[in-house]
Structures are given as structure tokens and as C-alpha cells.
Known about the structure:
Elements (H helix, E strand, L loop, with lengths): L12 H27 L2 H24 L8 H13 L3 E6 L11 E8 L4 E7 L26 H17 L6 E8 L7 H7 L2 H4 L5 E12 L3 E3 L2 E4 L1 E10 L3 E2 L9 H17 L8 E10 L5 E2 L2 E10 L2 H21 L9 E4 L8 E3 L1 H15 L4 E3 L20 E9 L1 H5 L16 H19 L3
Parallel strand pairs: 3-4, 3-5, 5-16, 6-15
Antiparallel strand pairs: 1-2, 2-4, 6-16, 7-14, 8-12, 8-13, 9-11, 10-12
Helix pairs in contact: 2-4, 2-11, 4-11, 7-8, 9-11
Amino acid sequence: MTWRRLQPAVFHPFQLVTQTIVYTSAMRALILTILFASSLSAQTLDQLADKALPSVVATYKTLHANPELSTKEEKSAALVASKLRELGWEVTERVGKYVDPSLTSYGVVAMMRNGEGPVVLVRSDMDALPVPERTGVDYASKNQGVMHACGHDVHMATLIGTAQMLASLKSQWRGTVMLVGQPAEEVVKGADAMLRDGLYERFARPDYALALHDWATVEAGKIGWRSGYVLANSDSIDITVRGMGGHGAAPHTTRDPIVVAAQIVLALQTLVSRENSPLDPVVITVGSIHGGAKRNIIPDEVKLALTVRTYKTEVRERVLASIERVAKGIALAAGIPENLAPLVEVIRSEAAQATYNDPALTERVVNVIRTKLGEANVVEIDPGMAGEDFGRFGLDRKIPVSLLMVGAADPARIAAGQRLPSLHSSEFAPPPELTLRTGMRAMTVAVMELLRR
């Protein structure tokens, strides 16, 4: 090591002035950063949320009372579009093209451009479910047999409230916000339809995509989050078990498809318990079984309708192949000829990819939400086996996405130890004010974080 004597520093006047300017500029930048970080104070956020809440709750109740099934969301989409236009957003309706040309896509896109900066997509789905409502609320569904049992009314109202807050805070962010009202989420067709219609080419390609989904096991007033896999691959499968029907009093002269179907239903569960690692979640549910017309007639066929949930691609492919193997193997063992082997169809149009929350994006937005909502109100949740098509907006992880959960469980029911209705339940009824207020606040600060000026 070489040592040398340090010489006293000599500053020329010009150098001193230059360095003073540099230090002053740096200090000014630091001060501005600190001021921005504190500009969206909890008080300001609360005030904006409180101002928006009455109209947002009223809109929510209107949407809840008038639910529309997948691909039929015409009035819901029109209401969302109208509200966003009133708030100053640039709105385009009927965005999306389904594979079936007879269907109309009621997708809504609202843009707010505010100078150079990132593009953030915020999605809300809009469709309801074929569920008869039994909540007893005074704004219950007016449409017989149709209900917002998955909370998409919460999502639409939250999107509108977030739009109002972001418009009010426009001086504090820079970039572009793209609000997306997505149709047909429940049949996993809407995201693909909007992308097929050139969503990113016509409007903007986002740098980030965010969404909220209400969550029946998280207390209202809280936000749930998860990095990595948060929701599962979802596959729909139809199995037609064929046999040789006849008289119920002479089963030996038939090849009974009802017995074969029953064996298939039970055997499919061994794919989960005996062919799959317990560390890789798999769910196989037979949700529908139909066969026969009269008690003393053995039918020629029985139809099974399945939903299958997985996370990993390789597990998904193996399970789907195994379902066909089991169905055909049991039929063969029952003496059903090969030309009448079960027909196994994977409904590709209803398949959804697992939702994978980008870890870096999720950590970033969760940290700022935790700062504004409080540590106790932001909770890590377990991944679920429900399916979603929100992940499609990420283009196979080319765009970071994060789906957060807004609590929808009634705190009073939790305190009383009462049963909590699940999503898709006819009794699902989140407390509107607390759920919506929490969702608006969380999504607003998340978007603001990604568009910091």
C-alpha cells in the first residue's frame, strides 16, 4: 500500500459557488421528496374518501339491485361509463371481441393522461352470477335468479370511487391511469376479449396492472395480500359416460353408465390423494351429474361436469391427462366396449391461468397501503384455489400484476362468532360503507405510489 501526504484543499471562488448551487439543488430535491411523501396524508386521504363515499355507496346499491350475467352487462357497463365521464375521464365503451361473434362485449376503458410517466391499469370486473339472492338487504337483486354473489358490484363502485379520488389528486401524480371495466370474468372470457380487441394497442400498454377483489374471509376494513401464486389455474371438463341401457330389473343385460359414473367420481379423488404431491395443491370437483329419466330405466349415458384447480403448469397438464385415463380405464373394466369409451372434453374457452402476483410490485404497493391504512389493517392471506382471468392482463408475466383482497366479512358477525357466507353464496352481503371506503383508499394510494411525481 502506498501512502501520500494529503494537501490542504484549495477552493477557488467559482468552485465554491458551483458546489453551493449543487448542494442547494440536492437539498431542494430532498425537501421536495419529503414533502411529496407526506402530501397524501392520512387526513387528506380520509377526507377524500369520506367525500366520495355517499355517492359511491348509492352507486353500489344500484348495481347490486340490478345484476347482469356474464356477456350481458350492458346496463352495468353503461352506468360505470357514465359515472367515469362525469368525473372527467376519457371513456370508451364496448371494448372487446369474443370468439363467438354473436356476443357483444361491454368492456369499458377510461383514460386519464397526466404528463410523462408510467401507465397503470386498474381493473374491475362487472358480471354477476346465476344465484337467487337470500341476503334480506333492502337493495337486494331485482333480477330473478341473478345476484352479485361474488362482489363485482363492490369492485365497480370501488373503481368509481378511486377514479374520483385520483382526479382530485391529479396535481400529485404524473403518468397515465387506465381504468378497465371488464365483462365476463365469471366465464373467464372478458380479459381475452378485451386484449383481442387491441386493448393495449388502442389505448396504452401498462407498466403495471392492479385489481382488488373482495374476500369473504378477511374482515371489512382490512386489505389482504399475497406474493406469488394467489389464485389457481381453473379448468372446466365435461365427461360423457356412455353405456348400453336397458330395463332396471335386468341390469345384467346392460352396461350401466350410472354405476361407471359413480366409480369415476370416487376414483378421481385418488388423483389428488395418491398421484399428486401434497405440496402441490390440486382440487377436482364434480359439480354436476345428470343421467337417466325414470327409476326403472338404465340410461345410455351420464354427463359429469368438473372443475379442476392447480397452480403449476406441469401439475395441471398431468392431472388433466390422468382424468381421461381414469375415466376410460374404469369404463373398460366395466365391460364397456372401446367404441363407447367416455368422451372427455376440456373446455378451453373456460380455462383460466393461475394469478401470480409479482413479488416486487406487491411488496411496493402493500408497503404504502400499510403506511396509510395501518399495520394491523394489512394482512397476509393464504393462496386460494378460486380462479380469475385478471392475470391475462399481465401477458404471461411480461407486465407485473398484483391482485389484492379487500375485506368483506362483517365485523359484527365475526365478533358474534357467526358463520361467514362465502363468495358465490346466496347470503353474501359485505358491509358497504366499510368495504368500499377501504377499497378506495387502498387502490388510490397504490396507484399514487406507482405514479409518484
